[in-house]
Amino acid sequence: MSVIDLGFLIQKPPYKSETSTLGLTHAISYQVVDMLLEEGQGVVPKVCFVGEGVLNCLKGHKAMEHYGVTSIETHIKNALLVDLDLYVCKEDLERFGISEDRLIDADDMGAEKKLQIVPFSEIQNILNNSKHILVF
């Protein structure tokens, strides 16, 4: 089987821009790419949140309440629901003083996947092993 790993690097905060939301939307959309591939081919998106990008993973975004738009929190929950691999940089969480209990989960939607808190070295390995890297 021919599998292509795609690395999505989200480093922008969720404020004043749709950059991180677009990155996550692109990653989720790769679920439908399989329909266009030959038998035995596949695409595996892996989303990595680093730097200020880890702020996207905090619970309690109120975009719908304040702006009438879907929040990055909803996108992250949907990504977990469709079993996307989402990695969050451990060192950046520590730098911002963010504990694991403050991070988004999709338990309320029945998702089995969780955000994976990993050291930056693992994120580097993921990106090094990706055929293409998309930066948001």
Helices, strands, pairings?
Blueprint: E1 2-10, H1 19-29, E2 41-49, H2 63-67, H3 72-81, E3 85-89, H4 90-96, E4 116-118, H5 120-128, E5 132-135
Parallel strand pairs: 1-2, 1-5, 2-3, 3-4
Label this structure with key terms.
alpha/beta, Hypothetical Protein Ychn, Chain: A, 136 residues, 5-stranded parallel β-sheet, 31% helix
Q: If you had to describe this structure to a student in words, what would you say it looks like?
A:
This protein has 136 residues and is an alpha/beta fold. The chain has a single domain (3-135), classed as Hypothetical Protein Ychn, Chain: A, CATH 3.40.1260. 31% of the residues lie in helices and 22% in strands. The protein has a 5-stranded parallel β-sheet. Helix 1 runs parallel beside helix 3 (72-81).
Q: How many H/I helical runs?
A: 5
Strand order of the largest sheet: 4-3-2-1-5
Q: Give the N-terminus to C-terminus distance in angstroms.
A: 29 Å
Oligomeric composition of the shown chains: single chain
- Percent helix: 25-40%
* Rg, alpha carbons: 15 Å
* CATH architecture descriptor: 3-Layer(aba) Sandwich
Total of domains: 1
Q: Unreliable stretches, pLDDT < 50, 5 or more residues?
A: none
Count of β-strands: 5
What top-tier CATH class fits best? Alpha Beta
- Estimated share of beta-strand residues: 15-25%
Anisotropy-based shape:
globular
Largest sheet: 5 strands, parallel
CATH topology: Hypothetical Protein Ychn, Chain: A
- Give helix and strand order, one letter per element, not per position: EHEHHEHEHE
Mean pLDDT: 90
Class based on secondary structure composition and strand pairing: alpha/beta
Task: Provide the CATH superfamily.
Answer: DsrEFH-like
